[in-house]
Amino acid sequence: MKHTLSVLVENKPGVLNRVVSLFRRRSFNIDSLTVGRTHTPEISRMTIVVDGTEQDADRIEKNLYKLVNVIQVDHLTDKPNVIRDLALIKVAVDNTNRSEVMQLCDIFRAHIVDVGPQSVVVEITGDEDKIESFADLLRPIGILEMVRTGIVAMGRGDHLLTSNGYRPQPGANGNGHKSVI
User: Fold this and answer.
1) CA geometry: angle 94, 100, 106, nearest 5 deg
2) Alpha-carbon torsion, ordered 73, 175, 23, 130, to 10 deg
3) DSSP string, 88-109
4) Are the C-beta atoms of 112 and 105 separated by less than 8 Å?
5) Is the pLDDT of residue 179 over 60?
């Protein structure tokens, strides 16, 4: 089963390496990993998708809290959430199939972001199933290249990863952050 973890970390050099090294040392395979800044410049947010048991996910969460730069970990798998992935897909087109690609884009709410004489680049966002379904329909036409961002996730509604606006409060516990949130 896939587990989605949302992790707040300090935006400092080497933090990504520490997190990834934890997964390597524990032999957990990362299915997807995205990292980006939050609205607070000194805090980054990672979305990590791993394949494993519930116990594996719990162990990962506990081990993440042992890292000094980790502020908060949220296991989003069983909570109401919004999960998105973005893909750019370059498709081979000619005069006979260009309209077919455009119709598929309309159906999947994808956008053509670049047009060339023999190819188009399509941008699509959504959950993994939507993107896979779209790619499956484009494959017979001719996918030339494809890149995906990886999963980003956020809890729905009032669910917040932190209630203190991402402000770390050092000294509260072993890593200085978890107990205040």
Assistant:
1) 130
2) 20
3) EEEEE--TTTHHHHHHHHHHHT
4) yes
5) no
Give the model confidence (pLDDT) of 107-117 as tens digits. 999 999 999 99
Cα–Cα distance list, 22 to 18, 44, 96, 130, 157 (Å): 6, 18, 51, 31, 31
Residue from 85, 76, 48, 80 nearest 156 by CA: 80
Q: What percent of the chain has pLDDT over 70?
A: 90
Tokens coding 56: 């594996």
Average pLDDT of span 111-127? 96
**pLDDT tens figures, 155-176:** 888 777 776 655 555 544 445 5
Q: How far is CA 24 from the centre of its chain?
A: 19
Distance CA 27, CA 34 (A): 19
Longest pairwise C-alpha distance within the chain: 65
Alpha-carbon torsion, ordered 173, 177, 178, 181, to 10 deg: 120
Residue with tokens 């941008």: 123
pTM of the model: 0.80
Backbone φ and ψ of 34, nearest 5°: -130, 145
